[in-house]
Amino acid sequence: MVVKVKTPLTTKMAFLLPAAFLVLTFVVYPIVATIMLSFNINPIPNVNVVGDRKPGLDNYVKVLTNFKFVNIEGLKTLSFPMGAIIHNIIWIVIHLPLTLITGLLLAILLQNVKGGTIIRSFIFLGMVIPMIVGGLLIQFSFDKDLGVVNLFLKILGLGFIARSWIIYPDTALFSLILGSVWLWTGFTVTMYSAGLASIPKEVIEAAIVDGADFKTILFKIIIPLLRPVTITVVAMTILWDLKIFDIVYASTQGGPGGASMVLALLMYEFFARLQDYSLSATVAVILTLVTLPVVVLWIKATLRGGKEQ
Amino acid sequence: MNDTVTQRLMFRSPIKWLIINAIAWIIGVLWITPFIGIFMTSIRPFSEVVSGWWTIHPFTVTLKNYIEALFNPMFSLYKGLINSLIIAIPSTLIPVFLAALAAYAFARFSLPIKNYLFATILFLMAVPQQMTIIPIFFMLNNMHLLNTYLGLILVHSSWGIPWIIFFLRNYFSLLPVELEEAAKVDGASYRQIFFKIVLPVALPGIVSAAVLQFAWVWNDFFFALMLIFDPDKMVVTQMLPRLKGQYQVDWGLLSAGSVIAMIVPILVYALFNKYYVSGFRGWAMKR
In the A/B pair of chains, how many CB contacts fall below 8 A? Predict the structure, then answer.
């Protein structure tokens, strides 16, 4: 509930303006300027970032037809590289269901074991460390000699397929995605654990009395009741998958031969290597546009939640 | 053993209980094996671990990797740690303070187009860093702030403000208003109310926001990568990939470097666990 008090405008401004000044200068204006730049309109006084290009949609045509963005050849033969946007989509398609299922099952399991909190904080470590270290840990774990992945394969009698998984085009992206499941599931488990803790005990007890088995309770009670949590987790996970950068930069730099290139890294490559700022801005705009549907849904859900409060 | 919702369902017999506990702990240990591995590699000479860090004959403990990483002639992680602190501390204090002021206005004052402003803040929380960085690069260059601590601090502070406003607004709006109203009746100014009443009461929320913002800035890589070039000014996450070497990855050096870079956020998490988790949920969960 908001209490309506007559507050002088100057007071309101004193509270709001310092934050507003920084956000407008270093967040809002740059967003607008990036959009302008993507249309070849020079947004920054005193510097000509655009060169002598004509304002228009040229950059979008260039990016959308760039083989690093979508690689038709790769798509036809289903081999890597398939292009940054396809790699991001593959990332979501694999990562999202894996982390949701693992997270929910682990949250249920850990709610019921001795020391569950400790195990949960182990799993949460992946969310605590810098993602640049996360990327190095993935590379390390998939290393042919040092990597624990190959150790497990050897234990399972599959030692003959052991290799440094992230240096081959056909397995680089998949290795990073699996690694990202390992890093990100701490988030899912934490969210679902909080959700589970808020389910009234009586509901489940009543179901047990009625003779429901675990599967029925999971699908008929727990999952429906956790729907709001699932929506948040799905939104956050998709956004994270689309913005992924550090992990790839630290491990493969998008390689080998672009096989693990993602949108955020492509933006950086156009900026740093090509020094083509408007092309780079265009990739950034496309990246933001791709996130937009999820962001809008999330904003709507959040505003709705705020009103009920 | 406290009994939770799904418990009776899963444990009908002691044996089942034992098996399920064992499975959970095996998963937990497997989950942190990469961490164990990187630590084991960092404290031993590389020659000992070339065929796997799990081989323990011979087992020699050495600090050589750490010393080489901390005092590397090109990218000294010791300097990196100092730089990370120089960046992260002001980049925590500034946005938390400014966002607390703004969040209070959002929680208590009637504002025109408040809902639109709030929706904008939510949008800014979700926008990719890539969407802002190119103009920031040229603006800072114009202001002679490129490749400086101050430039990076300004960017991090501004970037942190939206989510902290979001988080603290929720926190403030859950606090009882009676105390503030009583103070107003007694003739206290807004400044006095904010500093003497609101901030002390909201301290747990402020700490949560500060802890998460600090961890975020410490862990960030992209802003630093784009805005700092001088090896003397680089933050620790930025130096780390540069220790990799061109062709052959020196895992001894890199494992020590990884431990050095992640020890600070892990300590923050361990020391402020309660604040970390509550802030984290507040950040992600719509409340």
Answer: 324
A105 touches chain B (CB under 8 A): no
Q: Hey, are the CB atoms on A26 and B134 less than 8 Å from each other? A: no
pLDDT tens digit sequence for B92-141: 999 999 999 999 999 888 888 888 898 999 999 999 999 999 999 999 99
Q: Do A148 and B34 touch (CB under 8 A)?
A: yes
C-alpha to C-alpha distance for B221 and B211, rounded to whole angstroms? 18
Burial of B131 (0-12, 13-18, 19+ CB in 10 A): buried
- The answer to whether A299 contacts B11, with C-beta atoms less than 8 Å apart, is no
**Reduced to 3 states, what is the DSSP secondary structure of residue B131?**
helix
Phi/psi-derived region of residue B235, left when phi > 0, alpha when psi is between -120 and 50, beta in every other case: beta
Pair of tokens at residue A302: 């959040």
| Residues of chain B contacting residue A34, judged by C-beta atoms under 8 Å apart | 131-132, 134-135
Residue A85 three-state SS: helix
A 203-242 residues inside an 8 A Cβ radius of B: 203-205, 208, 213-214, 217, 222, 229, 232, 236, 239, 242
The closest of A127, A218, A216, A112 to A180, measured between CA atoms, is A127
CA distance A219 to A203: 14
d(CA B101, CA B204): 16
Whether residues A7 and B190 touch (CB distance < 8 A) is answered with: yes
The model carries a pTM of: 0.91
Is the Cβ–Cβ distance between A212 and A284 less than 8 Å?
no
Most B CBs within 10 Å, among A114, A118, A128, to test the B interface: A128
- Answer for the pair A141, B34: CB distance below 8 angstroms, yes or no: yes
Q: How far apart are CA A121 and CA A237, in angstroms?
A: 19
Residue of A nearest to B28 (CA): A119
* ipTM score: 0.91
Q: How far apart are the first and last CA of chain A?
A: 8
CA distance B219 to B225: 12
Q: How far apart are CA B196 and CA B24, in angstroms?
A: 47
Note down pLDDT in tens along chain A; length 309 residues: 455 457 888 888 889 999 999 999 999 999 999 999 999 998 887 788 887 888 888 999 999 999 899 988 888 888 889 999 999 999 999 999 999 999 999 999 998 888 888 999 999 999 999 999 999 999 999 988 888 888 888 888 887 888 888 888 889 999 999 999 999 999 999 999 988 988 888 888 888 888 888 888 888 889 999 988 898 899 999 999 999 999 999 999 987 888 999 999 999 999 999 999 999 999 999 999 999 999 998 888 888 875 433
Is A302 an 8 Å CB contact of chain B? Answer: yes
B98–chain A nearest CA distance, Å:
5
Half-sphere exposure of A306 (CA within 13 A, CB side): 21
